[in-house]
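User: Structure tokens for this complex, please. No commentary.
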Amino acid sequence: MLRVCLCGLLLGVPVSAQVLQLSAGRSTLLAGTGGEITAFFPESALSASAGFANGHFVFGVSDTFKFHGLDITAGDNIFGCSFDGASLGVSTRGLFVQRKTRHNTFVVYVGSTGIGYATPFMVTAKDQHIGAGFFLQRQFDNGLLPSFLAMIDGGKHTVVQGLSYQGHNHRLAGSGGLLQNEKYFSGEADYQPIHGLSFSATHNDYFLTGHLTANSLSAFAALGRVTLQASVLDGRYKVIKTTGASAGSSLRIGSITARSSFYESNHRILLVHVVQENLHRWTFSGIVNQTRGQTSYAFGGGYHGNKISVSLDHSVLFFPVGGKGFQQATTVQVSLHIHDTTLNFQTNVDAMMHMQYTTYASSYVQGSVAGPAMNSHSTGGKFIIAGAVVDERGRPMEGAAIQLQGGAVVYSDSQGRFFARVKHDKPLALVVLLTEFAAPGRWAVISCPADAVPGTEVLIRLGREIAP
Amino acid sequence: MKRASSQLLLQLLFFGLTVSAQTVSPMIVECGKKCRGEFSITNNGLTPLAVTVEARSFSLDTLGRATNRPLDPAVELKLEEGSARISPKGTHTFAYQMKCADPSCSVVLLSSMVVGHTAEGILVRVQLAHTIYACEKQKDCRKKVRAVAGVTVK
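Assistant:
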């Protein structure tokens, strides 16, 4: 029966949906491969996911809709709550109801719980136990934010109470209780006595294959172009205790920042010197590492643009698991935007210091009520093709779409003006894209030059079409 | 006719659902006489969005209310792009270079976009502002401009 519903959903949805979101990917960090299709309707969103997680076939279906001011999800969902350092995500298969107002958040779920899988490309759940839970949070005008979470997940009980307070120059937050039958406490205190000077202290409990406790004390000061920071860290995992200390300073001159940091853990000292330059959308960095009398060099950098983002970063992270202390980690991130499709690749270092990756693609397919469909990124350049779009009475027309030879599409502004930067000083063919207008109504071209020469003004005249 | 009406209703409902908040970041920047900057527009909706960017100079009254006017001749602004189509859930960054020949220049870059219709079918157009304060020195430029304008409210 479930398979019939799933097939019906997958076959029937694309026909009637207004927007479809298709995602697929693979992650070694989350140990899974799969895909998801989400159909957005006027008042609801229907999702279906399938794939393999930890070598097993998994699937999930959900319907999200509004009902009397409530956000309801029927099917597979992640019952996730995060407050004051506590965060808990439980995979649920059942009914999930949420109501959010300016001051209050109320979430309740009833159904089955089990091992779930939530990624940007797939959400599934495996029903193992009967479970139920609720979450309450209220924001008071005086800065107080109390939260309460209670749930039963099979034989595991969770009851966590949280409270945070945001004052004029300080913030205090704490939460504690039982988190899936384990005692839990998390606390954080931040104090900023003057602008540019801050102190912070944290305590956190994490649950991996064992109980991990982490504490930190840190101070930060910014004095014009110079920043100073120092921190002390302490972690305990199973029976191994790891401590660490770090201190560093940085100097910024124009687009260049020079930073030197000292790290000490497990009687091992690591010195890291970084010079970083930011040039418009580019970042370049050179890194010198010194440890145990050895010196090594590394380079990083990145580019952040509208179509592509790439970065190679080196950072020093504190790993309390296995008593590893401060370790260097390298991460790579690539993101490509092609029309309405996004491709992502990212590496991460997990808690055990293993390099993992996540890669996925996501695309939107428009139904009958689509917005503009053409790509409009300007190619850039020092020459400008500019002009104006007016209607039959000479009034400026906003939202007209004009395509230049080479594919770039530009839109006219409220004054009817448009421009595009081009690389070469030569005439380019010009086409008015009547079906791509952001302006309402049906239009016809009265006059439009066949091509445009950089440096000269183009005038396009349009007339409103009267429907027969 | 009935089918056309139901389709129109569906479209209005659809747009009603997708009139989600579009965002601009950062909202305000301060810079020296010459600056290079950028701002990003995020489309939180499910349909592509056509965005046009227009530059205006502005003055403040004593209550801090801004009045826009065409760009002053003292402002030399080079926008990399004047419009863009932003994918669903996508972000587009507009870059610019600006020179100010006066002691201070107050410029607003207005990003305009049609985000949907009201239930009555009236087009909803949103303008998001990225404000640039340029002075001889970057530090406290906004504060100085507001002081010169005699702004008494914080």
